[in-house]
Amino acid sequence: MTATVETGPDSLVAVLRLPVWNALADRANSLRRSLPARPDDAAERWAWWQGMNADQQRRAAVLDRLDALCGHIAGRPAPGYAPDSPMPLAALEEADGFTSSYVADTMSRFRAAHAAAATVAASSSAVT
Predict the structure, then answer these.
(1) What's this model's pTM, rounded to 2 decimal places?
(2) 65-to-8, 55, 111 alpha-carbon distances in Å
């Protein structure tokens, strides 16, 4: 008897959630350490942003994106990402190159399953 491994998008999300979150969080922490401390107050944050050079501002923007994606994966929907999407493709893009080969292969299978599901959904909506 052979075991069957489900490879639909939902089952792959369960496999990917932690390693993708870890990759994004590790990248975010690395960026956070390379920048001046980010204040919580909006006015202070504006001054913080203005006090940085262009490279630091770019890294701060990536940090904000990574933080938003980590939150989204953890169940706190981020602006700009579908609230019903547990694993935005943007999270996979940001994790590319920062995970093991097993996780990279699983991300490829997720992308293929996601594309197949979108094709089925598009063709079924065209029929109605």
Answers:
(1) 0.82
(2) 27, 16, 20
